[in-house]
Amino acid sequence: MSYRHLVGGVAVLGAVAAGTFAVAALPAQAGPAQADAAQVRAGRTVVGAVGGRGWPVDHVLSNRSLTRATQELVKSAKRRGDQRVTMVIMERSGVIRLVVRTRKAGPQTYESAKRKAYTAVAFGQPTSALTGNETIKQIPGTLVLPGGVPILHKGFPIAGIGVGGAPDGRIDEAIATDVRAAMAH
Amino acid sequence: MSYRHLVGGVAVLGAVAAGTFAVAALPAQAGPAQADAAQVRAGRTVVGAVGGRGWPVDHVLSNRSLTRATQELVKSAKRRGDQRVTMVIMERSGVIRLVVRTRKAGPQTYESAKRKAYTAVAFGQPTSALTGNETIKQIPGTLVLPGGVPILHKGFPIAGIGVGGAPDGRIDEAIATDVRAAMAH
Amino acid sequence: MSYRHLVGGVAVLGAVAAGTFAVAALPAQAGPAQADAAQVRAGRTVVGAVGGRGWPVDHVLSNRSLTRATQELVKSAKRRGDQRVTMVIMERSGVIRLVVRTRKAGPQTYESAKRKAYTAVAFGQPTSALTGNETIKQIPGTLVLPGGVPILHKGFPIAGIGVGGAPDGRIDEAIATDVRAAMAH
Amino acid sequence: MSYRHLVGGVAVLGAVAAGTFAVAALPAQAGPAQADAAQVRAGRTVVGAVGGRGWPVDHVLSNRSLTRATQELVKSAKRRGDQRVTMVIMERSGVIRLVVRTRKAGPQTYESAKRKAYTAVAFGQPTSALTGNETIKQIPGTLVLPGGVPILHKGFPIAGIGVGGAPDGRIDEAIATDVRAAMAH
Amino acid sequence: MSYRHLVGGVAVLGAVAAGTFAVAALPAQAGPAQADAAQVRAGRTVVGAVGGRGWPVDHVLSNRSLTRATQELVKSAKRRGDQRVTMVIMERSGVIRLVVRTRKAGPQTYESAKRKAYTAVAFGQPTSALTGNETIKQIPGTLVLPGGVPILHKGFPIAGIGVGGAPDGRIDEAIATDVRAAMAH
Amino acid sequence: MSYRHLVGGVAVLGAVAAGTFAVAALPAQAGPAQADAAQVRAGRTVVGAVGGRGWPVDHVLSNRSLTRATQELVKSAKRRGDQRVTMVIMERSGVIRLVVRTRKAGPQTYESAKRKAYTAVAFGQPTSALTGNETIKQIPGTLVLPGGVPILHKGFPIAGIGVGGAPDGRIDEAIATDVRAAMAH
Amino acid sequence: MSYRHLVGGVAVLGAVAAGTFAVAALPAQAGPAQADAAQVRAGRTVVGAVGGRGWPVDHVLSNRSLTRATQELVKSAKRRGDQRVTMVIMERSGVIRLVVRTRKAGPQTYESAKRKAYTAVAFGQPTSALTGNETIKQIPGTLVLPGGVPILHKGFPIAGIGVGGAPDGRIDEAIATDVRAAMAH
Amino acid sequence: MSYRHLVGGVAVLGAVAAGTFAVAALPAQAGPAQADAAQVRAGRTVVGAVGGRGWPVDHVLSNRSLTRATQELVKSAKRRGDQRVTMVIMERSGVIRLVVRTRKAGPQTYESAKRKAYTAVAFGQPTSALTGNETIKQIPGTLVLPGGVPILHKGFPIAGIGVGGAPDGRIDEAIATDVRAAMAH
User: Fold this and answer.
1) Domain check: are B53 and B76 in the same one?
2) Which of D9, D37, F100, G42 is most buried, taking the most CB atoms under 10 A from its CB?
3) Which residues contact F178 (CB under 8 A, 6 or more apart)?
């Protein structure tokens, strides 16, 4: 498997088992039965199941978690060196649920934070784990600098938290991680 | 004074005294001295004064007020009929300091809320006081529906709070007013 | 209640009972208890409930319903006079799940269809019921011409179907209604 | 039939016969057979027919017609009072095939011309015939001022020519008409 | 001549003589000779003439005039009641040569000023003379509120000055007029 | 021939014979006769020919093929590991005929899929064949990651199918290939 | 002089003599007299001179040259292998005076052609001379692939011609060069 | 510390002391007390302090400094070799306070100048000090070519001046530096 073509890798979403992958790469040999089996192993069917009749459901963030996120962002940014940062929280659909821009945050921080949130929720990993990824870098809207963390539900990314503005991306990511912990309380 | 040409009117910013206005409308007669006098009456010079040397200052929102705003938005929206709304807080510079989108808020709520915040901070009045204003309606980016309230500092608008998504704009504006009260605590 | 300020009216989402509205309009008298009661009467709490712990859920469209929608759009457009139309299906989050542009559809049809879908899912009604609404017309992204229908789940709009391109908007809306019926099969 | 809902009317594309229209407005009674019959009467099937196998075809403009269009635009604009205009020619797909901006044409002329071309090809009529149409005015991208003319092939609009910049829209439309005549040579 | 179709009228550019206009409106009768005659009367040929060989020329603003414009904008805004305004100067080509945003100018002032400058240079008149013009209002990018004045060279608009932000558009236009006078020194 | 300057190479469109290319590179020696000969060898004249009178034609997709494409996209995405992907089908003109976003597809999938479709139809090759192409990478709107396949008619690209969202681009491209096969039935 | 910082180099505009450059790099030593001298040597003062009073002038393209450009584009594209290209001609101000899109030109050709024209007029050189320039590549809106040529007036770029769509950029540039020659007739 | 992750480095804002940084990089050990101490050492609390009650303040540019900036830009550009440049001055909030485009400046100069101003105010350093920074290059809106300088107030960037258009970025930066000096008079 060449590096260039691989966006997130087998481990990205924790859902494509090695066997499945081979199947996908060799379409002529891929039967529905095998794919179904892989699906079950990955535990996806449960998440997306449509119960009997009616419409399927997706997991989203509660309003209360947004209150906790704002509170923690302000505290964590102060605690970690009085950082002037912006935070964006984006759901899997691409909807932005929360933006907080602290005082004196630079003009670039909104766009940075949004792109880190976007990248984290799109690929299901912290952006610090993607900084060497030349493939993702080509995809419009992404930013592969540290500062983005995904919010996972049963291993699937339902939202991303992006923080931008600290002089080192690792500070941004530490703040994003603090916020994620606060949201789960 | 014809209605069409008046954007906000004499009362908008509480700063153009009747005498000043005549001066402005009759440029040939307007001397610097008169203008200065009007300025002093309006109390503007103090806000914008540059003390001796150095750069002038503008008032902005504190980070803590954003925490309180998020908290109150969630509470007020629930209390006032479980409204699915989005709130945007914009400073006079046009910078967005806070966006909170509650669960199930419609796709139009971000843009509505942003425009109400923009209109309130641009013209220094609640948008409910501007709904009949055909002049403002022509200016790009405005929305003259209830739901926007300005945050004033010594009578001058330093920020606007916009809320959109409730079935009646007056509910949006009641929520925005709740948030403003909470920010000032 | 003045017409101008009312976006969708009491009937829009079927959720703000008369009593609730008075509460909302008179914030000083609105207690949480009353609001909660109104909420229960409107049946909203059930939809948005977070079961025990974890994240809340939103209803979305299944993939199979998109297959049925494409199939019916093509058939219905042909059956109703060989209309050259575009259809857009948008979820409540604003995500576009499906776009189908039939042959020779005009250049304006994508934007028309998108805005009708947006308006229908935002306000929970067919756009034909909103054509006289001057308030909604002011909100960016809307289009109050016939051709948009909402997909409701327990009375709440989870998606909108917009069709544009027929010489009469009522034909557009008839096609959108056909598609909605087919998706529910 | 209410005026508001009618975008272009029965006459717009010359394709929906009165009988067809009633059918469309009464979906329950519309059978495929009737629709097919109407289609044949309108002569549409021929245009869109897929010969045997393979893909269907659409009519577009030849390159030579663009040369003639540029030449005539420059001449006609000069002849009709040395007008400073911009011309845009857009095909039914929305593709812009030609833009010519004469010397000293104002900054608004490109957008005006583009929208007139768009409106003419979308609705199959000169824009001078649509100036009173409040429905079309609501559709994004349109401009219902004189200056746009469609290029028809067997009654169906395959392109639009838009001209903007003359002090009276009727001059713009006279130039557009000159260009259309030159293209057909 | 119906009002709706007339963008700027015979007087707009001071170039279409009554006789020319009739010619333009009756294309069949318009001969090149007549058009040329009208052109000469309007004095246009001189401006656009290409001397022998080489490229024609357009008039633009000098750099020094921009210095004077900035200086006067700041002084005039202060003198006329300490207005918080933004000024935009745009050339006929659409190029923005100068933007000055005074302290505390509202977020809407840039867009207002730009559109007034655009409208003034496009139609060759002060925007205060266009406030009742429903035709121009439909053209994208225009704003028919007072505050824009054209800079004319031999009667032809080579640039526009737009000012936005004062509580009354007439103050904006008085400032723009002051700036224009200063530029010509 | 340096690599950098070559967008697609001699083989891209299968139409520039070696002799033609030399001609093109040496304009002074290129006579119309030679060019015509090359054209005939490449078989292009037939496709673009204008029969006697009337307008030339371009090949586009039938509506039925879109129904089959939606159906196969949903099936193939499920079969190949329950991929959360978005598919875009774009014609040569740039018109988007179909967008299908499967459940839980990430926020980046629409843009990825659109760019792959765009790249495939622009250069007439699968995007997997272009991943090393630094020249194409510079052209705005392209994405040289696997997942895009062209639909060819007599060797000329009339549309592109782009798929994005699978953890490996080769899965995206396998799905796109499945869809293409289904459309041709 | 490091490569990275140099946008166009001493030779770009043919106007910064070696001596001037040293002056520029050593501001403390740069006196107006020296600069003026350099200016005269470069012959710039003449072009930008303001004759006595009134406004300065810039050179632009004549309308007739656009007619010749369209004609030659169509012919040259056919002659050089029946290329499906788009051509854009942009003046120094950034105004687009001409766009011609030949039949079957790909969706990327407009943007490519526009960027090549932009790059050629911005830096005063054929884009084929800039393909290795990493500095220019960073500037938004540029495209450093062959296909753009400047139109010079006394050594200064007054417009750029950009062509995109041929399989090799050198064919694009040969066509652009043909067009430039035709415009000068 | 890897190069890639570091946006501006310890020196960027002159505010994160070495001790603080270690703290930030090791969140588990970071206590509020230590952060507060670092904050005091960096002198930040003073700038952002909210005096008793009321809103905090940010430093912005005076109107008079804009007059001086325009004047110096025109003079410096002439003195340094008659450069055709554009200058943009942007405050920390992202607000553009001044744009001056000198005669014959190329079409790319506005965007270049804006991005240099943006980069300088975002990272608090001249852009010439950032030209090798691959991390900043990835952040949307930045341009790491010489020509941008920050305006600092007590070591914190309150605005950025960007200049673009000279053949060597160092000339651009020399002009920007001249302007900064003039503003401080």
Assistant:
1) no
2) F100
3) A27, F72, F75, F76
